[in-house]
Amino acid sequence: MKAKVGFLGLGIMGGAMAANILRAGYPLMVHNRTAAKSEPLAEMGAGVASDPRHLAQATEIIIAMLTGPEALDACLWGPEGAAAAFNEKKTFINMSSVSPRYTREMAARLALTGAAFIDAPVSGTKKPAQEGSLVILAGGPREKIQELEPLLLTMGKKVIYCGGVGQGSMMKMFINLLLGIMMAGFAECLNFGRLGGLDFEAMLDTVASGAMNAPMFQVKAANLREQSYPAAFPFKHLSKDAKFVVDTAYESGAPVPLGQMLLHLYRLGVARGWGDEDISAIAKVMEHLSGK
Amino acid sequence: MKAKVGFLGLGIMGGAMAANILRAGYPLMVHNRTAAKSEPLAEMGAGVASDPRHLAQATEIIIAMLTGPEALDACLWGPEGAAAAFNEKKTFINMSSVSPRYTREMAARLALTGAAFIDAPVSGTKKPAQEGSLVILAGGPREKIQELEPLLLTMGKKVIYCGGVGQGSMMKMFINLLLGIMMAGFAECLNFGRLGGLDFEAMLDTVASGAMNAPMFQVKAANLREQSYPAAFPFKHLSKDAKFVVDTAYESGAPVPLGQMLLHLYRLGVARGWGDEDISAIAKVMEHLSGK
Amino acid sequence: MKAKVGFLGLGIMGGAMAANILRAGYPLMVHNRTAAKSEPLAEMGAGVASDPRHLAQATEIIIAMLTGPEALDACLWGPEGAAAAFNEKKTFINMSSVSPRYTREMAARLALTGAAFIDAPVSGTKKPAQEGSLVILAGGPREKIQELEPLLLTMGKKVIYCGGVGQGSMMKMFINLLLGIMMAGFAECLNFGRLGGLDFEAMLDTVASGAMNAPMFQVKAANLREQSYPAAFPFKHLSKDAKFVVDTAYESGAPVPLGQMLLHLYRLGVARGWGDEDISAIAKVMEHLSGK
Amino acid sequence: MKAKVGFLGLGIMGGAMAANILRAGYPLMVHNRTAAKSEPLAEMGAGVASDPRHLAQATEIIIAMLTGPEALDACLWGPEGAAAAFNEKKTFINMSSVSPRYTREMAARLALTGAAFIDAPVSGTKKPAQEGSLVILAGGPREKIQELEPLLLTMGKKVIYCGGVGQGSMMKMFINLLLGIMMAGFAECLNFGRLGGLDFEAMLDTVASGAMNAPMFQVKAANLREQSYPAAFPFKHLSKDAKFVVDTAYESGAPVPLGQMLLHLYRLGVARGWGDEDISAIAKVMEHLSGK
């Protein structure tokens, strides 16, 4: 018999992930601060909890997919927070993107409740979330992660074991740093080519024909072609991730010259008011800097 | 009946490309400054010219795949240079990597001879050269490029039309800028992850599972794993290309913040004596900067 | 009659500053974690408190010149911390370098005690501290700062009013950012000139003869000439300040491209183990990067 | 008896410098492409040559203060160019700002004429040019420079011997790199402080009171205060100098991370159309980047 699952946070990502858990046959209870977002899942058969604590009391495995530390703090330790209902029979999986440092602090605090804790942020955005093809970056006790794998694989195509608690978040930063550099690099190169008189489609064709071709370039090129940047991965989130990277690198002593430039460039876009667009709007930063 | 082809420059790339032309049935004459490099092609049936001028006199289409402007200048306008044998019945295809500016200067000078001129650098390194699967970035009159396509496709899988003369070189810079940013970014991310306690294979697995996966990462990861960097694309050449990019961007007004950082990082490696290793040796620069 | 002053922290800076207060005729009580550092001041006539709390009980104006947030937290809120003895008759002046954010958090916490609070970090290092010629960057209520000016001027030649509490720290970051950029720029230029064949003294002469001449260049040039970097301002502290700048800029939206490069360069030096040398040891980073 | 001097180029700098030579009692002949600029000097008693060649024929020491390589090439080797009148009795002093590489090429070409050649660019802008207080950065044979010192000191307060021909230009790049970094750093710091709530005058006061104080900050602060940037040193010239620096550093292997950032920042301003304003207009770039 499948474990009862509670899901906190039903945004673009969380809503799609919770639906996939439900479709896989797990008894599911959900909660979202804005109650209306629970309705589609209720119609699919999920229970709806009035607050995080009731959700935690009624389930065994509690998953959070929230916007950041503030939302997590509120859901766990705020009024009617979930943590007060945690005990050694409960497992908490944080899939929200937060820094490794915050994750380790959260782990220390949760240890007092006796609940098992896994950090499991994801690589992938809206579409993989809907298709259940996310890559799940899991940190925590290896045997616990193996035990949870069937549940995790309802949301993703793969679980990558990243190390102890906090290392899932570390891996998330690693991959988002690469994502950010590739996105900004792609935009810089296309703008450089444009000002050098190259045709946009010919440039894409050259990228697609060679060893640098990555799936993301096809997807993001569509945004650039249409000059329309609906958020699959919000610009301001990558700006925040770049800051996490710089903070973490400062502590570990890792040189991140390209990462620092990334932070600079994404901050320029946030300053121009483009924070809610897609990360591919970095193309607008490049064009803006060139003044033409 | 196929046109007679002359091939100047039989290095790692040129030797493999010339062999593919010969295999496709073109009558071929070759020349290389170091004569010994002509022998394998002579054994395959190619004629060997004693100097560039004799090669140009005896053929209709002359292709150059040389190391840079100095070698090109010597082959074209030096003693027994090819240009003196050019006329309106000859076609010259430069496949060497040079800057758009140099290409346009060369075009102006060659115009006096009456010969047709195409610039057609390639995307791809040793292996695609051997397999005839290069991507050929062609600039020049469109109808002339179409006419030459069968010949070009003996060396490559695809010809991309990039615009007038010089735009092949421009496209080459575009794609090498992207290559350089991705390579340096990959190295920076892996070093950042290493110092953050992540496992090398888990990081590669994360890259390979997501939208950032590009064929080059698989190939270059092998070098990093073995800490061995045999040159498929020499480090110093990418350093030179990064300088071309900065020069060209200065003229066109394109902002290239990541490209400038690339130049800085690759110059550091050249300063350490790693210029003849592969571009993936940028991993050593990152480790070196981190001091551990 | 002069107010009774308590001084916490008798390092290179604090020891010299406390001595100047004493020389100006203020009744002074001191405390330092390592008790031996109190001896010179005791010999000059200062009282010695066994812990911060006794010091705060026995004095009206309490000054801290400590190494950072951890030391401040310990001195204020640790066992026998000073804050427990604060009330509306006490004034606390923090002259230690900390971030504006930490200063504002400290202010909020101290507000509960009723004590007045001024943040007053200094511009200047060892020598100006000894000579009483520091520049004092004061944040807090303007009339309170005016009232304290005679005391502050025993340590410095000038008090600059910077705004409300936290703005003294903000000004300190402003001036240390300029200091860092000028120091790193000076080192970069001298290394650039060296590799271009210029004579060290001729370069200094050129700087000294023109509009770029600043007193710091004379002082720091001596270190570079001797290749000896005894810490007047420790390298690792500037690295920490650069991180404060990047953090603050992230919050305010200020672009700090040179500041980010500064952070990168100083981190490289810390990674090489030069954190305890003077900030002028950035010259070693430049030479090291150039590989010769 | 004083040598006859010819002066080519009567712009803001050249006009003031030529006037100082004349005031010192040297027989002077001048030439400027736009003839009207010769008039003030003619009124002061200078002869006016119809072209560079006549000027060179009629004088012994020929000085050029032109806008760059193109103007120099035209004046020396164009129609009625000066070089055709050079011989072993003539001395040519180039005071225009050009790259060391161009200077060395010019030297090689001039060697054929037998004329002595000195490169002597200046540190200082409009006002020092008028007051005769420039710093003259001289490269060439040391005894020749000593011989010319009385003449040079009519224009400047000091002659600094920089090494062989080309090293005057190298020193000029060294000092302009420092100038550029300090100017951009000053602007970055002031913008950082502004967004952090600091008062402009309080920031200036802090700079002026400490070891970072340099004369240029007082002068340039006036522009920033008035938000008016009349060119004492044109923005586009510093952009050009930054490119020289990056080019020279590429050849010598010097790391110039701050110099590269400088090039990037100044190029942004040129792209916005601010090339003809003063270098202090970099403040507008910083404000523009911050979007507020």
Protein model, in words:
The structure is a homotetramer of 292-residue chains. Chain A is α/β, with parallel strands linked by helices and 292 residues long. Helix content of chain A is 53%, strand content 13%. The longest helix of chain A is centred in the middle third of the chain and has 29 residues, at 167-195. The termini of chain A are far apart. Chains in contact: A-B, A-C, A-D, B-C, B-D, C-D. Chain B binds chain C through residues 268, 271-273, 289-292, and chain C through 268, 271-273, 289-292.
Which fold name fills CATH's third level, the topology of the largest domain in chain A? Rossmann fold
Q: Count the helices of chain A. How many?
A: 13
Query: Mind telling me the CATH superfamily name of the largest domain in chain A?
Result: NAD(P)-binding Rossmann-like Domain
Strand segment count of chain A: 9
Strand content of chain A: 5-15%
In short:
The structure is a homotetramer of 292-residue chains. With 292 residues, chain A is α/β, with parallel strands linked by helices.
What are the salient characteristics of this protein?
homotetramer, 292 residues, alpha/beta, Rossmann fold, N-(1-d-carboxylethyl)-l-norvaline Dehydrogenase, domain 2, 2 domains, six-stranded parallel β-sheet, 13 helices, 9 strands, 53% helix, globular
Task: Summarize the SSE layout with pairings.
The structure is a homotetramer of 292-residue chains.
Chain A: E1 5-8, H1 12-23, E2 28-31, H2 39-44, E3 47-48, H3 52-58, E4 61-64, H4 69-77, E5 91-94, H5 100-111, E6 116-119, E7 122-123, H6 126-131, E8 134-139, H7 142-152, E9 156-163, H8 167-195, H9 200-208, H10 215-226, H11 235-252, H12 257-271, H13 282-290
Helix pairs in contact in A: 8-11, 8-12, 8-13, 9-10, 11-12
